[in-house]
Design brief:
The protein is of the alpha/beta class. It has 22 helices and 16 strands. The protein is 49% helix and 14% strand. The strands form 2 sheets. An 8-stranded mixed beta sheet has the order 1-8-7-3-4-5-6-2. Helix 14 links the parallel strand 12 and strand 13. The chain binds phosphoenolpyruvate and magnesium ion. The site of phosphoenolpyruvate has 10 residues, from strand 10 and helix 17.
């Protein structure tokens, strides 16, 4: 049999060979058909409910074994919901009264319940809507013969194949079994891709029409370094990629030797190579890869994949843990950056037609001070455990920065008055993600301790190209002279004010961008943990003095292609 080759965007490097697990999390909308034998249809319905119940029970047991009884409780609640007499009886009545197929009847009954729950004032009840959708979706899947996938019960070596994965899907991946994932949509900067890099999990995204071409259980080779996928590989291909995988792992082992080395250029300029993280679990990789610190802790992931806001106490524990693990190395913790493609189930935000341009990140925090103050208090309370830097995302104008700083100062004063110890050594900085902030960097530099350039957003706003939209993905152009110019403005503004500048967008770990950024004088580069050692190796071979001149030359060019060519040419020498 011939293998099938597909290409996609290389989102997180590595090579994996395993069986495909198709994850279809989209709602199945059954069609209505008329039936004659209502008794037979009722039996079919009861059998599907029983199958779904067994599935959930299995997931419950697995979760209990792996993660403990408390984490497994949710599945007990699911069984309870599934067996709800109202749900079952109403569906059976509908089948008999209207002589319609079971899946359609259940879908109708469930939609009514879900709709009602979604209208409730009580948050707990509203959350139940998603649970009802989940359990009834599973039954409907059995009735329609379509697979109902869940990521929690996987217990063999698997590559996940999905249309898309939400950040909370990604957060659930069990790394004991999951070797990588492939999605039809998404880009290098979508959040599931970023999470994959921090988990060092191979990922290929943006493959288009993939689900139709892969059978569940088919063997897949994914070369996520090249963005290449081979479905049903031949023996020769398997042999070739087993060898590539071995070489890849060997190279990684070689790089690990640099973990203890300083980050210094060939002409002796010290820079900081820091890591981006999204959870406490990511810290192990940060230490393993010898990072000089943490340049971006995306705290929104603490708020995701759960049913309500994390409490102040919970957050204190998380921040303290990360700070103490870093043993005095700098940890930049970014305040909640929700909105855009990052949603919270329990925070009902008004629907916006342009969420990336809407009430997100700090804008949202300033409009929901309760949420913001809780996080700031937690950060301040944790601050004595290490070297804390607080960073505000998505600032466009000075008044936002001032307001955020004012609230921070208020919470600090309150804590001190309560006798709580707060570090006197906290640096406060901001992300530069909006062109307006880059253009006005001199004014901002006077009022912060540091900048961190968020190129994922800065590029999307400069190019007016949604970072989630495949059709305009070509406009993600980190080496474009317009982007380099903005970056230069920010670095220079920081220098003039005697502050330091960093970058925590994906560009900071990019091997074409790194030489230019070094030449422009960037002080700190924050990237996925897996990019740190290759970056340290590269910087060790570059002279900042040389790249200063090359970066200046790059700024005079007209296109990203020309810049890339220039860099490649100089690197090849
Ligand atoms: C960025 O925008 O570059 C960034 C680092 O933030 P995020 O990717 O979380 O939006
Ligand atoms: Mg951003």
């Amino acid at each position: 049999m011939k293998s099938e080759h597909i290409t996609g965007v290389a989102a997180s490097p590595g090579i994996a060979i395993a069986k495909a697990f198709k994850f279809t999390n989209t709602e199945i909308r059954p069609t209505k058909t008329t039936i004659t034998d209502t008794e037979k249809e009722t039996d079919r319905f009861r059998a599907a409910v029983e199958q779904a119940k067994q599935d959930i029970e299995q997931i419950r047991q697995l979760t209990e074994q792996r993660l403990g009884a408390q984490k497994a409780e949710i599945f007990e609640a699911h069984i309870f919901l599934l067996m709800d007499p109202d749900l079952i009886d109403n569906t059976i009545d509908k089948i008999s009264d209207e002589k319609i197929n079971a899946e359609y009847a259940l879908h109708e009954v469930a939609s009514l319940v879900i709709g009602m729950l979604q209208e409730m004032d009580n948050e707990m009840l509203r959350e139940r809507a998603a649970d009802v959708k989940d359990v009834t979706g599973r039954v409907i899947a059995y009735l329609t013969g379509k697979p109902y996938a869940t990521l929690t019960g996987i217990s063999e070596e698997t590559i996940i194949v999905a249309n898309d994965l939400t950040p909370s899907d990604t957060a659930q991946l069990d790394l004991n079994y999951i070797r990588g994932f492939i999605t039809e949509i998404g880009s290098r900067t979508s959040h599931s891709a970023i999470m994959a890099r921090s988990l060092e999990l191979p990922a290929v995204v943006g493959t288009e029409s993939l689900l139709n071409r892969v059978e569940n259980g088919a063997t897949i080779i994914m070369d996520a370094t090249e963005g290449r996928i081979i479905i049903d590989p031949t023996n020769e291909e398997l042999f070739e990629y087993e060898e590539k995988k071995r070489q890849y792992e060997e190279r990684r082992a070689q790089l690990k030797l640099l973990a203890e080395q300083p980050s210094v250029s060939a002409d002796g300029v010290h820079v900081e190579l820091a890591a981006n993280i999204g959870s406490v679990e990511d810290v192990a990789k940060v230490l393993e890869n010898g990072a000089d610190g943490i340049g971006l802790f995306r705290t929104e992931f603490i708020y995701m994949g759960r049913k309500n806001f994390p409490t102040e106490e919970e957050q204190v524990q998380i921040y303290k843990h990360v700070l103490s693990k870093l043993e005095g190395k700098r940890v930049v913790i970014r305040t909640l950056d929700i909105g855009g493609d990052k949603e919270l189930d329990y925070l009902e935000l008004p629907k916006e037609s342009n969420p990336f341009l809407g009430l997100r990140a700090l804008r949202l925090c300033l409009s929901r001070e309760d949420i913001f103050r809780t996080q700031l208090r937690a950060l301040l309370r944790a601050s004595t455990a290490g070297k804390l830097n607080i960073m505000f995302p998505m600032i466009a104008v000075l008044s936002e920065l001032r307001e955020a700083k004012r609230i921070l100062a208020e919470e600090k004063a309150k804590l001190l008055a309560e006798g709580v110890a707060v570090s006197e050594d906290i640096e406060v900085g901001m992300m530069i993600e909006i062109p307006a902030a880059a253009l006005n960097a001199d004014a901002f530099a006077k009022e912060v301790d540091f900048f961190s350039i968020g190129t994922n957003d800065l590029i999307q706003y400069t190019m007016a190209a949604d970072r989630m939209n495949e059709a305009v993905a070509y406009l993600y152009q980190p080496y474009h002279p317009s982007i380099l110019r903005l970056v230069q403005m920010v670095i220079k503004a920081a220098e003039r004010a005697g502050k330091w500048s960093g970058m925590c967008g994906e560009m900071a770990g990019d091997q074409i961008a790194i030489p230019l950024l070094l030449g422009l004088g960037l002080n700190e580069f924050s990237m996925s943990a897996s990019s740190i050692l290759p970056a340290r190796e590269q910087i060790g071979q570059l002279s900042q003095q040389d790249w200063k001149a090359i970066a200046e030359e790059a700024l005079t060019l007209g296109t990203q292609e020309e810049v890339k060519q220039l860099v490649e040419q100089k690197l090849a020498r």
